[in-house]
Amino acid sequence: MTAEASRTGSPTDLAADGGRPLDIALLTYKGNPFCGGQGVYVRHLSRELARLGHRVEVIGAQPYPVLDEDEDADEGYRGSLRLTELPSLDLYRQPDPFRTPGREEYRDWVDALEVATMWTGGFPEPLTFSLRARRHLRARRGEFDVVHDNQTLGYGLLGDVGAPLVTTIHHPITVDRKLELDAAEGLLRRLSVRRWYAFTRMQKRVARRLPSVLTVSGTSRQEIVDHLGVREDRIHVVHIGADTDLFSPDASVPQVPGRIVTTSSADVPLKGLVFLVEALAKVRTEHPGAHLVVVGKRAEDGPVAQAIERYGLQGAVEFVKGISDAELVGLVRSAEVACVPSLYEGFSLPAAEAMATGTPLVATTGGAIPEVAGRDGETCLAVPPGDAGALAAGLNRLLGDAELRTRLGAAGRERVLSRFTWARAAEGTVARYREAIARSAGVDRSAVTGTHLPLSPNGGTPTAVQDPGRSAASEAVYSESRATC
Q1: Engineered SS bond to 267: which of 4, 96, 117, 299, CB 3.0-4.6 Å?
Q2: How many CA atoms lie less than 13 Å away from 266 in the CB half-sphere?
Q3: What is the DSSP letter of 339?
Q4: How many of the other CB atoms lie within 10 Å of CB of 171?
Q5: Domains of the chain, earliest start first
């Protein structure tokens, strides 16, 4: 059913906000729901949008998103949810990352561009996914009321994509780039980091031309203004949150004495794991049974691996990867303390999820973490980023004080329930969708009240920029991408 046809349905068939149900295309160039904030965002937001009564089609590339589809009427879905696979060449898949595709795998010039960028040390996926998504969306003009891009920020999404565009920027990747450059040792490593992050120049150019940007925190909003040059009046904060049904306390799960849990990849400097490893060495002088479970990728070399060896912590640090939701929740519940040691976060889902289980939290004040975790001594213990001594002091304090752990755990859970849930995130996102639709259609509030939207002569939703033609547009994008990448 097309978006136009769906508008002719029963006037009583309304979404939760009283407006007509929307047909939403939700784009994600990486959809892993178990690692990385973007995949988690798409999984939970799409589910809650469907529960509000909207029709959501997630369009993604590898690793494909895992969606919480409606398999039981009791799950509370009012709309629908589906996945459309828009495959890349999957050049970074395991166990053969940076692979060279066979000749039979090439389908068009976008595939050739993807491989060429990878061969020359760049990261092609935001650009190449945006080009494939543009082609896909234009072929389906009129089927969607709104297109929601999840931080692709590629050239292909400029201009006419067949429906009004709303874009989520979790935080500017330029922040990651700066932190990785600061951590890089040697000229060759710095050149490699600069080349890998060359796509951020494209993202900055695209971001400045977007009509409607969503972000997940006030801190990220300011970073988007400062780093990407987006006008303040185009950026709207819609907090995300935890799945509070899944991440919940369970008194029947025994706590493991001395267990500290964190979510982090060892090879990502901004996650601050090396400082937590150093802090653990200090903590074990007072609490010999203290040990760390890391949900994330183990690095075989680099600063974290060196720190583990230097402090003799091989038996006190465990990495787990690829665990299920239930296993993750059980792990967090079993910990005496959760820790977020990041130097910077645009929101920090691990902080919200740990708090939702009632597990007491030690967190840094990097980026938006205080916006999520709350005040020091009230809902968490807060320490400066990059300070192993302060982390150790906070961990020691919590491990040695059961009453404090109980108080902070309960207060943290209440904070998440009142501020940071996926249901609230979906409601705020839909409000921005309706504003974007109304603005694109050139009317004041008709989309908000659910009335019929006028269509452009070619049957699509009118936009400010009309496409001059596929060949010309593709060539222009290709020329600019070569200069950038």
Answers
A1: 299
A2: 22
A3: E
A4: 24
A5: 3-241+422-484 (3.40.50.2000), 259-419 (3.40.50.2000)
